[in-house]
Structures are given as C-alpha cells and as structure tokens.
Specification:
about 250 residues, alpha/beta, Rossmann fold, six-stranded mixed sheet, four-stranded antiparallel sheet, about 40% helix, globular
Length: about 250
C-alpha cells in the first residue's frame, strides 16, 4: 500500500493522575506493513498501543484509523478492524482451544458451519494440529498458546493486528521458532501489524518501520538503517549501541 497512511496519530498526549506518560506523539503507519514500537521499559510504547486500539482514552490529539477517528462513539468500528494479541496469549483458561477461537465469531452470531470453516483455515495457516482443539490452554506449550492467540485475533479477518510484547514469556528456542513462523504468516495474510517490544533484534527482524520511544514521546521513526546511520537524537545512538549485539547477524 502507498499513499495516505492507514493510521494517523496526531499530537497525542496521555496523563495518569497528573503524570504525563505520553506527550505530543505524532506517527504515520502505512497499511500492509509491520511497524514496531520500540523502547526501554516505561517509555510509553504499550500505553500508545492501548490508546490506538481504544482501550484507554487519550487527553489530547487525535488518532485516525481507516478514516475513522478513535473515540467512545467509534469503539465498535475500531474493534472490528483490529485483532489484539496480548502478553502471554490471554486465553480464557475455562474454555477449550476451539472455544477460545470461536468466541469472537459467536459474539457476532456467526453460523456454526462458518465458524468451523474459519477455524480450519486458521489451523492450516498457523500450523496448529486439529487434535489440539478440544484441549485447554493449560495443556498447551507457551508457543502453542501464542499461536492460538494469533488465530483468535485473526478470526474475524481484521485489517490490523497488534501485539504487546508477544514473546517475553517464551524460552529462547520457542521464541525464535515462533518469530520465524509469524513472519511467514504476516507475509501471507498481508495485514497491517504493530508490535510492541523493547528488543532491538526483534524490531529489526519484523519491522518495516521502527518507532523508537523515549521520555514520553517518539524520538525517531524510520527503518533500521535510518536509526543506525541517521540518528535524529543522541538517545537513538545510545539505544542502538547498547543493543547492537542483538542484531549482528542481521547486519552481516
């Protein structure tokens, strides 16, 4: 996609109990690309994600998604356009895997045959064995739970997928495997993807565009090469140098 951005964030600020957590954030996010919100803990990147998808109200500015302004009156329209993958999967422990997957569709009164057809499609896409569908989340590995969470987010075929620190609870081997699988899935489904992470290697692996947050705002948005070779702020250089070891393989 080229031309006008799918998501426009204009001068957005957010306070909690008179303490600023975001100030004057401006971003353009292009459709059908993978965007990464990167930065140290407490910099505001996860809060920005929650404002974008309507989980929190913002104090100033505006967010426009697919020409719809984010706000209380448009919450349902925005929700229909976004699939949200939360930290550690966020699956309901009392529901089977099939129950977790079908929940968004049942809420919209899809027919059982349509739900089953969509689940079959998603199992094929995500590489999840059909015999796992009757099981419960506690009976799956961490990587499998994250895969199911992605499938649930894709159930209604949203135009945007968002991930908040999706790999933090996984061991290194499961983490690398899931990252590789997700990148292949992203290439197939051609969605706009937003990933929140503090890990530069992860940002470099996924991101067409990286937005580096620090001290309540975005200090630079661009490609990995932009941030490495054309830093706009001393913090960009400091952050990149501190994590450079994590991207050596990608730079060779």
């Amino acid at each position: 996609m080229s031309g006008a951005p799918l998501i426009k964030i204009r001068h957005v600020s957010k306070h909690f109990a008179h303490r600023a957590v975001l100030e004057d954030v401006c971003l353009d996010l292009e459709g059908e690309k993978t965007h990464v919100f990167l930065g140290p803990s407490g910099c505001g990147k996860s809060t920005m994600l929650r404002l974008l998808i309507g989980l929190l109200p913002f104090d100033q500015g505006e967010i426009i998604i697919d020409d719809i302004k984010v706000g209380p009156n448009t919450q349902r329209k925005i929700a229909e356009r976004i699939g949200y993958v939360v930290q550690e999967g966020g699956l309901f422990p009392h529901l089977s895997i099939a129950g977790n997957l079908s929940l968004p569709a049942r809420a919209r009164k899809w027919k059982k045959t349509k739900i089953q057809s969509r689940i079959d499609e998603l199992c094929s896409l995500a590489g999840l064995e059909a015999e796992l569908l009757p099981r419960f989340p506690s009976q799956l590995s961490g990587g499998q739970r994250q895969r199911v969470s992605l499938m649930r987010a894709l159930m209604l075929d949203p135009m945007i997928l968002v991930f908040d620190e999706p790999f933090g609870a996984l061991d290194p081997i499961a983490r690398k495997t899931l990252q590789q699988e997700l990148k292949l899935i992203f290439n197939q489904v051609k969605k706009t993807v937003i990933i929140v992470t503090h890990d530069l290697g992860e940002a470099a692996f996924f991101g067409h565009s990286i937005s580096l947050f620090n001290d309540k705002t975005v200090v630079q948005q661009g490609s990995l090469q932009d941030l490495l070779h054309h830093p706009s702020d001393p913090f960009v250089t400091e952050f990149m140098n501190a994590q450079r070891g994590g991207i050596q393989e990608l730079l060779q």
